[in-house]
Amino acid sequence: MSIVLISTAKYCKFPDEDTKMSREPGKGYDRERFELQRIHCAGQDTSSLKKIECWKTCLRSNIVECFPLFHEFITSNTLSVDAQITAEVILHLTNLPGELKRYFPEIGNAESWIRNPFKVSPESINASLSIKQQKSLLEMSADQILLADFTKMSLIEFWAARLGEYPELSRKAVNFLLPFATTYLCESGFTHLVMIKTKYRNRLHAEPELRLKLTKIVPKIDSICDSKQPTHRIN
């Protein structure tokens, strides 16, 4: 028995995180693809390209462990992947580096300080920055405590956390990085909207459901249920 995937190879049928037997498009392959986008826009483009080549090599050998949810589903249900589908996914992976470069072009030298503020020098500092910003950037580049934070945090988290200490540099960096972070939510939102607003629910106002799908806040189900339970007054 073969798993049928949408022919574009952009979306795959994977088990839902809560219900193994349910199938949900995009959960496995798209998750890895969005992770590649995050790595690529963070400046680690060589790493993302190597990861894509690794995926292609695994698929040519019928190894699907690189897509964890997909692998879990086919092994738990004793399924196999059709050769044509594998070929389509490999083709999509072949085209993916070009798409990454189109969505996330190379960061020029003018913005290299955003990628790594600890590699700047007085000679290489961006001339478009004001004198005050240049001074702040040089001070930051010599701060070893901030360097330790830089190695532990993502790029957007690091610059957002600097708003109190270096407000001008922080705003400038966050405004530059923000479009990359919101691209993931946009792509993920389209995927979830296709699942929520079907032809049988075409008049549904899907905004509340989309908010629940995209939020990272985990609801406290037990507390919510307890607050809704009726109370019985004993006279």
Automatic annotation (TrEMBL):
What is the residue range of the signal peptide feature? Answer: none
Q: Which InterPro entries match?
A: HATC_C_dom
Molecular-function annotations in GO = protein dimerization activity
The segment(s) forming the HAT C-terminal dimerisation domain are 146-206
What name does the UniProt record give this protein?
A: HAT C-terminal dimerisation domain-containing protein
Classification from the root reads: Eukaryota, Metazoa, Ecdysozoa, Arthropoda, Hexapoda
